[in-house]
Amino acid sequence: MESGLSSAGPASSLGLGLGLGLGLGLHRFPNGCTPLSHQVAGHKYGKSELGMLQHPDGTVLKQLQPPPRGPRELNFYNMVFGSSCHDHVFLELRKFLPKFLGTWTPTTAPNELYLKLEDVTRKFKKPCIMDVKIGKKSYDPDASAEKIQQQISKYPLMEEIGFLVLGMRVYQFSSDSYMTYDQRYGRGLTKETLKDGLSRFFHDGSCLRKDAVAASIQEVERILQWFENQNKLCFYASSLLFVYEGSPQLTAMGVGDAPRKLAAPKGTKRTGEVVEHNNNVHVMNSSESRMVEASVGQSLSNMYALHRKGCFKAHQSMVPLHLKNAEQDRSICKCLTLISPGQPNGNEIKQLEKDLMHTSSMLQEPPEVDVRMIDFAHVFPSNTKDEEYIYGLKHLISVLRNMLDD
After folding, report:
1. From CA 220, how far away is CA 242, in angstroms rounded?
2. 39, 129, 239, 242 from 158: Cα distances, Å
């Protein structure tokens, strides 16, 4: 197994450091909080730091760092989310951040202070999560020469590439488990391996989720547009948090029938002392899979007959199956093999595939994707555009677009 990569099932993936931390007795969790089970980067519980916590109300707690980083991050959130804020630049910025819900102090530790933040993964059943540090530099203007050299040595390609993958957690549909990649994996990526390395975040074990890639590009482009239009702040060592739904939602629909969902019900999954919200999935059994493939195959045969009669477009409503997200593309690819050699010739197959993919794109709903900016301990006032952050965003968008071209 390569460095920085690990595989974990649904149970073992919930807070990998939990057992270690409890065994060492490093910390007692305050007020019913638990370790943030889906954290992919930053200080994690089980080491010397407490790491990030999940409050019983579902919010995320981030312990305030020592000065000057902690107070600087708190001041940033207060400036952007303060009730007296009327600056359109900051009001627009709110859209791209987790909601700031103030500070929180546990009753058992009155000297500790936490930032209370929205958990942007909470609405997802099987959240696939990636933390990407953005910018040509991971050190701020106040950094010492020693600190600068230390940060450069961690990833010498940062200035050229403009971003660094800090961690990923990717749901694998076929095995109902997660693959996790830590910062060692990201630092091992070169200019030549960057695209393939990043594409692993969008691969569900069976295929590349190009729908999630395309939606992620749109989200990053919105953030880029904000940066292009502001010259008040510069961000160093700040990240983008990518989240998309890894659980395919399958809806079988016959002509005139109401939708019939094959996905699992919503809820929570409890393992030991850790509760991970919205993490249920229904994995299709073999009989369901055969039903889906047979239904799509029959649909394709009907479409082929209509295509030969020149009336395909007038009968698009006869397509009896609605497949969402990646499962749609996989089933369509499978059903193309169901056509016998005695049916359409090569040119007709190409046209049929084109028509079928066009129809599927009309039926497919946009995937659930969210991209937020996080980590603001190194945000500084400015009077110019943040060109180094913009450089990282543009290169990241370029790499994502190249995935769609393959």
Report:
1. 9
2. 23, 21, 13, 19
